[in-house]
């Protein structure tokens, strides 16, 4: 007999407790709804060639951990180009930067070679700051697709001309030769960039860590004459450049910023069918993702998106692997057509859940920024 009232009391206590919890949650939600946390900044991190196996290999190699585990929202994108099922980095990055499916080799142009305004250009028009950081040359397909419009990714001199005239506020990457060792008919771009308001220098003059950007000027730094080294051979500027970019872009402007950071050489490790190369590049990129998340967490108004343009190498982790000794197999020295994961953190992150075309990443960023 005494058990029934006790059960009832316990039940009533729990109902009451749940009611109160719900009430508290509702209050929190309605407060959030009244003052929605609008996206002020977007940081887009592109691990070139970083498919799910590259991520898995990198994760196992560092004790089964990756910064990507911090992301609450995960989606998948379909990476194909307009003319090929398997995309290259130019069409892949143009899908993100412009929202159009285009042909392999296209930089910021549609399938009819017509220029399309990029997310970076739209952001600059709204008075926001913009930045690009890459471990390839800065005129390479992925960064180029955010500021240049060219029918071919190989027209490096023309792409460098576009950067000189661009509205990119901060950039760091390789490729000094495309600015200073040019055909006689072309201008020395350092000169024209300085008159376009850039503070520009390179690895030949000093190290990046010894430079303090002048906040009243645009900032450019070239880290190598052509391609930067792999991280395993001593390249170390990408984490610093990413940190400097955020500091610079967040310093003065109150209208927010758009920053793209590319881990360019995960792809190169895939082309070389070199698992250790892939993993060492991923490990550095993963560290940068962690740093970016720390900033976003403190800031509260930064949307962080991590994805890749495509997978490279058709990488597989072989059955004889252990966590400490990964055995790799590759099916290709080129890119493959598998779907690519998308990780999102911060305000509006939830719109990145699901399966969608790579071009949707552009439209989702527009939506997050509330651009028309
Ligand atoms: Zn590639």
Please name the defining characteristics of this protein.
372 residues, alpha/beta, Alkaline Phosphatase, subunit A, 10-stranded mixed β-sheet, two-stranded antiparallel ribbon, 14 strands, disordered N terminus, binds zinc ion
Task: Quickly describe the structure.
By secondary structure, the protein is α/β, with parallel strands linked by helices. It has helices at 3-34, 52-61, 89-98, 119-125, 141-147, 156-164, 177-180, 189-195, 237-251, 266-271, 275-299, 360-369, and strands at residues 41-47, 73-78, 129-137, 170-174, 198-202, 218-222, 257-263, 302-307, 311-312, 316-317, 328-329, 335-336, 340-345, 354-357.
Write the layout of secondary structure elements.
Blueprint: H1 3-34, E1 41-47, H2 52-61, E2 73-78, H3 89-98, H4 119-125, E3 129-137, H5 141-147, H6 156-164, E4 170-174, H7 177-180, H8 189-195, E5 198-202, E6 218-222, H9 237-251, E7 257-263, H10 266-271, H11 275-299, E8 302-307, E9 311-312, E10 316-317, E11 328-329, E12 335-336, E13 340-345, E14 354-357, H12 360-369
Parallel strand pairs: 1-7, 1-8, 2-14, 3-4, 3-7, 4-6, 5-6
Antiparallel strand pairs: 2-13, 8-13, 9-12, 10-11
Helix pairs in contact: 2-11, 3-5, 9-11
Task: Explain what this protein looks like in three dimensions.
The protein is α/β, with parallel strands linked by helices. The chain has helices at 3-34, 52-61, 89-98, 119-125, 141-147, 156-164, 177-180, 189-195, 237-251, 266-271, 275-299, 360-369; strands at 41-47, 73-78, 129-137, 170-174, 198-202, 218-222, 257-263, 302-307, 311-312, 316-317, 328-329, 335-336, 340-345, 354-357. The chain contains twelve helices and 14 strands. The strands form three sheets. A ten-stranded mixed β-sheet has the order 5-6-4-3-7-1-8-13-2-14, with helices on both faces. A two-stranded antiparallel sheet has the order 9-12. It has a two-stranded antiparallel sheet with strand order 10-11. α2 (52-61) packs across α11, α3 runs parallel beside α5 (141-147) and α9 (237-251) packs parallel to α11 (275-299). It starts with a helix and ends with a helix. The model is unreliable at 1-34 (pLDDT under 50). The structure holds zinc ion. Zinc ion (ZN) binds at residues 49, 89, 267, 271, 312, 335.
């Amino acid at each position: 007999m005494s058990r029934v009232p006790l059960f009832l009391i316990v039940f009533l206590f729990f109902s009451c407790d749940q009611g109160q919890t719900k009430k508290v949650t509702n209050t929190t939600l309605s407060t959030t709804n009244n003052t929605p946390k609008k996206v002020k900044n977007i940081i887009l991190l592109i691990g070139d060639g970083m498919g799910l196996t590259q991520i898995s290999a990198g994760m196992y190699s560092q004790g089964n951990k990756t910064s990507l585990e911090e992301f609450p929202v995960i989606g998948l994108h379909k990476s194909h180009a307009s003319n090929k099922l398997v995309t290259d980095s130019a069409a892949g990055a143009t899908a993100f930067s412009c929202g159009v499916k285009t042909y392999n080799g296209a930089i910021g142009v549609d399938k009819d070679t017509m220029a399309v305004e990029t997310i970076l250009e739209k952001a600059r028009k709204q008075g926001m700051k913009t930045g690009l950081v890459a471990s390839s040359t800065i005129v390479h397909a992925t960064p180029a697709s955010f500021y240049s419009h060219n029918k071919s990714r190989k027209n490096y001199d023309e792409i460098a001309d576009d950067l000189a005239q661009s509205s990119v506020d901060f950039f760091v990457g390789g490729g000094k030769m495309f600015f200073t060792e040019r055909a006689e008919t072309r201008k020395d771009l350092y000169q024209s960039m300085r008159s376009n308001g850039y503070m520009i220098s390179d690895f030949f003059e000093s190290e990046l860590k010894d430079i303090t950007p002048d906040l009243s000027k645009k900032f450019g730094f070239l880290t190598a004459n052509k391609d930067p080294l792999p991280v395993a051979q001593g390249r170390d500027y990408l984490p610093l450049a990413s940190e400097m970019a955020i500091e610079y872009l967040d310093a003065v402007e109150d209208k927010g910023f758009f920053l793209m950071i590319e881990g360019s050489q995960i792809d190169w490790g895939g082309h070389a069918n070199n698992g250790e190369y892939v993993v060492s590049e991923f490990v550095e990129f993963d560290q940068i993702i962690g740093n970016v998340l720390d900033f976003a967490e403190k800031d509260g108004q930064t949307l962080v998106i991590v994805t890749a343009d495509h997978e490279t190498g058709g990488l597989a982790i072989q059955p004889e692997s252990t966590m400490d000794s990964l055995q790799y197999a590759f099916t290709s020295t080129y890119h493959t057509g598998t779907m690519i994961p998308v990780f999102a953190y911060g305000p509006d992150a939830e719109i990145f859940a699901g399966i969608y075309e790579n071009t949707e990443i552009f439209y989702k960023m527009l939506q997050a920024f509330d651009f028309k």
